[in-house]
Design a protein that fits this description.
three-stranded antiparallel beta sheet; seven-stranded mixed beta sheet; Aspartate Aminotransferase, domain 1; 13 helices; alpha/beta
Length: about 400
């Protein structure tokens, strides 16, 4: 048998689909490898500190050894869907029927892909506020659709509804909004979200909202979701995740919430992508209750303020994010391109920041921005900032 790394016998490169050929590897995945290989302190990637709740770990371990380790219902364990429904009611006052309005997915990433596949056909367009989480354009492209970027407006990164309206064409089928927003940290307000939903209703579009950071809004703000708004019926798909609030990013347990009609379509897609999330991990999460969803907002707000103050002192252009886990810091005052600065910091200081080039359609637009996270281990973050201080002190 020919080894997979050997060239084909006819000398030709393997044929890849146009969808795959047009998608590059995720830079954030490469950053993880880079930090590991260089032994750098990683303050680029949002990986929660600590471990998942002990009860979840124990329940998952028990499930592995007691026969609860084979297929779960594709839509997710009933107990887990009931838990998600209870949390939606407790934290947002939203009533969702776990039987036909909630679907458990392999993380929010699969949830976004399922949502896009459910409501678009090849050649359709999806409006995407920019900058964006770098995974979104590739997800849209895998569905055969095309993303249309709409820049967030001004220094406050507002959602420009007039610009969204201008971007709508006869081929537009959906808008994909992330709130709280990665990488800018915007927590879009009532006027922005309700206005966007009204535009979707006017033009017969689906609003897909990725709300994985919905528990992380700061300075007394409240998370705003289109769920429960008057125009939301058959118009909204909300994607969520348990990885952030339960500190289990590696468990890959996410979910979609939508009307029964949209959920029926979502589940058909879900069954043909992953079939279902790993049952032992679902069993683990299902063992939890409301008390296990710890409120880290005060802790992370303090860490946010600490990081913002130190990045400002180092010469970055930065302001406190309203939500999420990240700071988007400008590099103009440093007269440095973010991609080169990130490489130099890894090599010379042993610190990993994320250049923002992958968050823009035109990579050049991200050359004056870098992303850092404030949720990593506090002592390691302090050490990373001290390494950066020494680096800039000796850099002419």
């Amino acid at each position: 048998m020919r080894h997979s790394c050997e060239p084909r016998g006819d000398g030709k490169a393997p044929r890849l689909s146009r969808r795959v050929s047009g998608i590059g590897s995720m830079e954030l995945a490469g950053l993880m490898r880079l930090a590991h290989d260089a032994g750098a302190i990683d303050i680029a990637l949002g990986i929660p500190p600590g471990d998942p709740p002990a009860a979840a770990i124990e329940a998952a371990r028990t499930a592995l050894g007691t026969g609860h380790n084979q297929y779960a219902p594709p839509e997710g364990l009933p107990a887990l869907r009931r838990l998600i429904a209870a949390e939606l009611l407790r934290t947002r006052g939203v009533v969702a029927d776990p039987a036909d309005e909630i679907t458990v997915t392999c993380g929010a990433t699969e949830g976004v892909l399922d949502a896009v596949l459910t409501v678009t056909d090849p050649g359709d367009e999806v409006i995407l506020p920019e900058p964006f989480y770098e995974n979104y354009p590739g997800v849209i492209a895998l569905a055969g659709a095309v993303h249309r970027p709409v820049p967030l407006a001004g220094p406050d990164r507002r959602l420009d509804l007039d610009a969204v309206r201008a971007a709508i064409t006869g081929r537009t089928r959906a808008v994909l909004l992330n709130t709280p927003h990665n990488p800018t940290g915007r927590a879009f307000d009532e006027s922005e979200v309700s206005g966007l939903l009204a535009l979707c209703a006017e033009h017969d579009l689906t609003l897909i909202t990725d709300e994985v950071y919905e528990r992380y809004v700061y300075d007394g703000r409240a998370h705003v979701s289109p769920l429960g708004m008057p125009l939301a019926a058959d118009r909204v798909i909300v994607v969520g995740s348990l990885s952030k609030s339960l500190h289990m990013s590696g468990w890959r347990v996410g979910y979609c919430v939508a009307s029964p009609a949209l959920t029926a379509g979502l589940r058909r897609v879900h069954e043909r992508t992953t079939v279902g999330a790993a049952r032992p991990l679902q069993e683990g999460v299902s063992a939890l209750g409301a008390a296990d969803f710890t409120d880290d907002r005060a802790l992370f707000q303090e860490r946010r303020d600490h990081l913002v103050a130190h990045l400002d002192a180092l010469g970055f252009d930065v302001s406190p994010p309203e939500g999420g886990w990240f700071v988007l810091a400008g590099t103009s005052r440093l007269a440095a391109r973010s991609d080169k600065l990130a490489a130099e910091l890894v090599e010379s200081a042993g610190v990993l920041l994320a250049p923002a080039t992958s968050f823009f359609t035109d990579r050049a637009d991200g050359l004056t921005w870098a992303r850092a996270t404030f949720v990593r281990d506090r002592d390691r973050t302090v050490e990373a900032l001290e390494r950066m201080r020494r680096f800039f002190a000796r850099t002419p």
